[in-house]
Amino acid sequence: MKKTDFILRSLSRISKKRWEHYVINRIYHRLDDPEIEFVCQQCIRRKDRGFYLADFFLPQLGLYLEIDEGHHSNEEAKINDARRRFDIAEAAELEEVRIPASDTTIDALNANIDTFIEEVRRRKAQAVAKGNFLKWNYEHRFTAHPHLEAGRIEIGPHAAFWTHKDALNCFGYNKGHMQRGVWNIPTHVRDAIGLSGKCMVWFPRLYDQPGWDNSLSDDGTIISEINKDPQHVYDEPWKTRIVMARSRDELNRTLYRFVGVFEVIPEFRTGNEHRFKRIATSVKTYPRTDQTER
Question: Domain spans of the chain?
Answer without folding.
Answer: 3-130, 145-284
